Amino acid sequence: MWTTDTVAQALLPLVGDRGLLQGSDMASYEQGARYGHGKALCVVRPANVQEVQAVVRWCATHHIALVPQGANTGLVGSSTPDDSATQVVLSTSRLRNVCEVDAANRSVTVDAGITLQELNEKLEPHGLWFPIDLGANPSVGGMVAANTGGTRLIRYGDVRHNLLALQTVLLNPQGELLDMGRALRKDNTGPDLKQLFVGTSGAGAIITRATLEVHRKPQQSATALVVPTSDEAVLQLLQALERDLGDYLSAFEGLSGHAMQAAIDHVPNLRNPFAPEPAPDFAILIELEAASSKAYTGLDLQDTLNLFLQDQFEQTIDNAVIGNGHELWHLRHSISEGARALGKPIAFDVSVPRSRIMDFCRAARAVVAQDFPFLHVVDFGHIADGGVHFNVIWRSDASKAYDPAVVSALRDRIYAMVVQDFAGSFSAEHGVGPHNVAYYRQYTPPPARRLAQGLRQLMDPQQLCGTVDFGDSSAAV
Amino acid sequence: MWTTDTVAQALLPLVGDRGLLQGSDMASYEQGARYGHGKALCVVRPANVQEVQAVVRWCATHHIALVPQGANTGLVGSSTPDDSATQVVLSTSRLRNVCEVDAANRSVTVDAGITLQELNEKLEPHGLWFPIDLGANPSVGGMVAANTGGTRLIRYGDVRHNLLALQTVLLNPQGELLDMGRALRKDNTGPDLKQLFVGTSGAGAIITRATLEVHRKPQQSATALVVPTSDEAVLQLLQALERDLGDYLSAFEGLSGHAMQAAIDHVPNLRNPFAPEPAPDFAILIELEAASSKAYTGLDLQDTLNLFLQDQFEQTIDNAVIGNGHELWHLRHSISEGARALGKPIAFDVSVPRSRIMDFCRAARAVVAQDFPFLHVVDFGHIADGGVHFNVIWRSDASKAYDPAVVSALRDRIYAMVVQDFAGSFSAEHGVGPHNVAYYRQYTPPPARRLAQGLRQLMDPQQLCGTVDFGDSSAAV
User: Where does the signal peptide begin and end (chains A, B) (predicted)?
Assistant: First the structure.
């Protein structure tokens, strides 16, 4: 049995003093971003790819499990160790030597430990950005492992859509380096192996470097917060927007009244944009972006959006607050904080075909109202891509005391609705980790489970890497 | 040893009279679109997924190889049998029952045998299209197997970018059905298994159905054929376009003087757009598209492009022919036909980072001029995505007689330049088939080859399906 001391003694020569953490120095690496925590054997922080290879070689040879960790911003528990104190956390936080921009190719090659914010700072002087927008600052390696989506997916796609090449260290005693793809937009030379490491929560290999397609930073944007006339009008409005202004649509976010109210009530310096009227039952944050400059197009994007909205008045919308994008996005991004102030959140990161998203939300709210009337729904989501954060709060002042069995029953019920009744996904953009792997086992069809089992056997037969075993044979039907 | 008679006798009850072809009825299924032909044991044309399963079950049980074939438009020989008369061609041409449009979700679920043109006819009434544009009418299943790219990739991506779900029949004696993904834009629930079947030339499983994201059909477009002031100016022009009009750019195609001249000289009813001047040494076909209507934006796309070009005059461009998109695209799409009229084409479908594309073309032309002066280069390509059809013609009137050994030496030389000197791909959009698999073996690094070998062992241990063995163990270093 390995102890922290013996493992640390073996790893120290591989990564040096700064590369090894023990004891209380490990605390932030053992704590999940929002939920859960564990206990690591030790934390290694390799400073370059060669050090990653050395650590993998040693761990693969001695059958020591590795938990890859980027900026540790994930929400499904996949970047923190379990409580067994038998896993080594491999943090990529020092893996940040390379960040090479090829402006004419609109691509960047970047080490896994560079964060999204750092990447965007590096791209800024070139008029470029990596446009995936979310309420956190993950590392690039973590974004690949999570296949991050965010609020502007409808315009730019997820990480998978923007990944040109990937480098990983394979989980064999050779710690072999695998380079997949190049800085190319067209390359069809056999199976696209890098896809095996995208959206798998760190399973399969250690991600060390990625080449990403990047985009022109918009020179104009326009925003509005609009109140639809009905649930049916929401999809009509979205379709009209795509028809008339589809080149510019970058976000179409749904905010329930409860969600807005939670933010307004509990987040400092946030005002109700509809004041003196109360927040409506439902509103949509519309954002348009134009990479193109007004100089050539003559197009004022905010004026254009306003004209469109005028035309929609009384057809699909009742009211609108226009402009001031910063304030409107601040409201949108404050919902999670506001919801947490109300009590314990029970988060559902789900998606359905967007043609059914309003029906799903209505049906799910009805289930809570009828069978869990002591709970409070704070839902919001990315309507244009079918994603819903159907979050439910067990308020501090609820009529019933917090009960994990009820939470579990609610989770079973909502996920069953999503997957079985609405042809949806039980994890839209947060991925699968220890927190929700039971639903992977429940809802993945047997042939897919068997194929995943074969992949795990191929890539990581000892199940050394990551926190989820997609090939768990006990689960294969 | 199975004969056509004994196999046909076994398969006939599974697919019926209309589903089985023998003898001379097989001719068009044995002939490659442009190059190569083989000899099939028989051709089966299942009419639905159940019939595909029955055929796979029988073939997997009796170890009979299957060659899946869509519309048979591929260019690397991957959809036609070899000349052994031991393979059954499984044509998806009757697999065309389902074509379900969900307009509000902007998605369509479609059987593998439906062609691109049929799909677009079905989408038209909804104001939608599947915007992948190429000089052929492939089946949807074939497009997935080839990961088709085409001329508008820079705006819409390739098939992989637009694939939401995939159904395949696995190559086991159960002929098991594997459904992967749903009509969702955000769905991160474990390994994305459908990626294993995209761009693999029919290896791994029989593709039976796909769900695709589709797009709003543009309401405006604008075109121009421009002459750059220099090679360096080409990338400057592209970057300026993306900066000033990036929301609209849908094509940026390079046409060499030889390419234009071949089309003008040999394709009926095609005129030189620069007449009375001769065709220039190099020109770029620019296309802009706006999904958005002029009604809301006030934007006339052709006027906008013209203003941009005025501004570029003497900076990056010398001359421009504007408007008449139909005529300009006809010139672009006639190059292959024109080139074939000159003699035997030696095709190179390659890509490099677009920042190096003009350098690559110059260097490759110099190699031909110096070491193969009797050959004639007819290059054109997709500059914005780094793709080049660096085609070389062995003219009928060449000073040296056609010599396969010289062709082989040229292929080795050009591919080595692309892959080793320019960090490029030896097959940008045509994929890998029997015609070019030798370069897959040569240029795929050993760890990637071993992983591909493991995948093949997992998905098709008998190597029953397709015409390329990406896991060829004789090739694994």
Answer: none
- Chain A CB within 8 Å of residue B238 CB: yes
Q: Which stretch of DSSP H or E encloses residue B213?
A: strand B205-213
User: Residue B445: inside a domain, yes or no?
Assistant: no
Q: What is the CATH number of the domain that holds A80?
A: 3.30.43.10
Position B271 in a domain: yes
Q: Which residues of A170-186 are buried (b: 16+ CB within 10 A; e: fewer)?
A: bbbeebbbbbbbbbbbb
Answer whether A447 touches B (CB < 8 Å).
yes
Question: Are A423 and A430 in contact, with CB atoms under 8 Å apart?
Answer: no
pLDDT tens digits, one per residue of B205-251: 999 999 999 999 999 999 999 999 999 999 999 999 999 999 999 99
- The total number of structural domains that make up chain B: 4
pLDDT tens digits, one per residue of B439-460: 999 999 999 999 999 999 999 9
- Structure confidence by residue, pLDDT tens digits, A332-357: 999 999 999 999 999 999 999 999 99
Residue A442 inside a domain? The answer is no
Measured between alpha carbons, how far apart are the two ends of chain B, in Å?
33
| B128 assigned to some structural domain | yes
Helices assigned H by DSSP within A221-348: 231-245, 257-266, 294-297, 301-312, 325-333, 335-342
Residues 73-102 of A with CB under 8 A from B: 102
Q: In a mutagenesis test of the B interface, which of A162, A166, A187, A465 is the best target, namely the one with the most B β-carbons within 10 Å? A: A187
The answer to whether residues B85 and B108 belong to one domain is: no
User: Is B472 a residue whose pLDDT tops 60?
Assistant: yes
The distance in angstroms from the start CA to the end CA of chain A is: 33
| 8 Å CB contact of B447 and A246 | no
Same domain, A208 and A137: yes
CATH assignment at residue B210: 3.30.465.10
Shared-domain flag, residues B131 and B197:
yes
Report the gap between the CA of B361 and the closest CA in chain A (Å).
Answer: 16
Structure tokens at A196: 């095996």
Q: Are residues A115 and A81 both part of a single domain?
A: no
Domain termination residue (choose one: A192, A216, A240): A216
User: Domain containing B394 — which CATH number?
Assistant: 3.30.70.2740
Structure tokens at B116: 């691109």
Q: Which residues of B touch A307 (CB under 8 A)?
A: 296
- Residue B477 clears pLDDT 70, i.e. is over it: no
A351 closest CB neighbour out of B186, B238, B248: B186
- Does one domain contain both A32 and A134? no
**B380-400, pLDDT tens digit by residue?**
999 999 999 999 999 999 999
- H/E stretch holding A123: helix A116-123
> Do the chains contact at A352 and B184, CB–CB below 8 Å?
yes
* Domain of B407, in residue numbers: 338-421
Band of pLDDT at residue A297, cut at 50, 70 and 90: confident
User: CATH code at A274?
Assistant: 3.30.70.2190
pLDDT per position as a tens digit, A229-262:
999 999 999 999 999 999 999 999 999 999 999 9
Q: Which of A213, A81, A67, A75 has the alpha carbon at shortest distance from A140?
A: A213
- Residues A8, A31, single domain; the answer is yes
**Could you tell me which of A28, A11, A33 has the C-alpha nearest to residue A20?**
A11
For B:167-196, CB contacts with A below 8 A are 170, 176-180, 182-193, 195-196
Cβ atoms of residues A111 and A140 within 8 Å: yes
Touching B: A residues 398-437, CB under 8 Å:
423-432
- Boundary (domain end) residue, out of B26, B61, B91: B91
Same domain, yes or no, for B247 and B152?
no
Q: CA-nearest residue of chain B to A288?
A: B247
The reported pLDDT for the residue numbered A324 is 86
Residues A81 and A15 in one domain: yes
Tell me the mean pLDDT in the region B53-76. 96
